[in-house]
C-alpha cells in the first residue's frame, strides 16, 4: 500500500477488498477489519463486500460478538447489508444456538427489503428444522 501511495497510485475498492480478503485468508480478522477503517479514512467508502468478508471470518473463528459489532457498525455507517451479509449473520447465530437473535436478524432482513435467496432458505430449513423451530421458516422470511 505504501509503495502504491508513493507512486501516486491510489488504492480503490478492488485493492482494499483484496487486502481484506488476503488478511482473512491468513487468519487475521482484526487486521482485515482495520482495512475497512483505513478505507474510510482514505475516503473510499466500503460497500457490503469487505464487511461481509470480515463478519464471516469472525463468525467462523468463534468471535460472534465482533461479527455482530461489525454488522451494526456497518449499518450505522450507512452501508446497506446485502443478501450475503444477511445470510452470514443468522447462520452464525443459528450455529451457536442463538435462535432468537437469528430470527430477529432474519426479520430485519425482511424489514429492510432484502430478498432471500436459496442460501437463505436452505439455512433456515437446516437451522430451524434441526432445532424444532420449523414454524419460524414461514414467519421469518417473505
Descriptive labels:
mainly alpha; 2 domains; PPR_rpt; repeat; 9 helices; 142 residues
What does the overall shape look like? elongated
Structural domain count: 2
Report the uncertain regions: none
Distance between the termini: 43 Å
Kindly estimate the percentage of residues that lie in beta strands according to DSSP. under 5%
In total, how many beta strands? 0
**What summary fits the major beta sheet?**
none
Give the proportion of residues in helices.
over 70%
Organism: Brassica carinata (Ethiopian mustard)
Keywords: Repeat
Family: Belongs to the PPR family. P subfamily.
Protein name: Pentatricopeptide repeat-containing protein
How would you summarize this macromolecular structure in one to three sentences?
The chain is mainly α and about 140 residues long.
Description:
- By secondary structure, the chain is mainly alpha-helical.
- It folds into two domains: 1-80; 81-142, no CATH class.
- It contains nine helices and no strands.
- It has helices spanning 2-6, 13-25, 29-41, 48-60, 64-76, 83-95, 99-111, 118-130, 135-140.
- Helix 6 (83-95) packs antiparallel against helix 7 (99-111).
- The longest helix has 13 residues, at 13-25.
- The model has no long low-confidence stretch (mean pLDDT 87).
Amino acid at each position: 500500500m505504501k509503495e502504491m501511495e508513493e507512486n501516486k497510485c491510489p488504492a480503490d475498492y478492488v485493492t482494499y477488498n483484496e487486502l481484506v480478503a488476503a488478511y482473512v485468508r491468513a487468519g487475521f480478522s482484526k487486521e482485515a477489519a482495520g482495512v475497512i477503517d483505513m478505507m474510510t479514512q482514505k475516503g473510499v467508502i466500503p460497500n457490503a463486500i469487505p464487511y461481509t468478508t470480515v463478519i464471516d471470518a469472525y463468525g467462523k473463528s468463534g468471535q460472534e460478538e465482533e461479527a455482530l459489532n461489525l454488522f451494526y457498525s456497518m449499518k450505522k455507517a450507512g452501508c446497506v447489508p446485502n443478501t450475503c451479509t444477511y445470510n452470514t449473520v443468522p447462520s452464525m447465530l443459528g450455529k451457536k444456538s442463538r435462535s432468537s437473535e437469528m430470527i430477529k436478524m432474519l426479520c430485519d432482513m425482511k424489514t429492510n427489503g432484502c430478498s432471500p435467496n436459496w442460501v437463505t432458505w436452505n439455512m433456515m430449513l437446516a437451522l430451524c428444522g434441526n432445532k424444532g423451530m420449523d414454524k419460524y421458516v414461514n414467519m421469518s422470511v417473505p
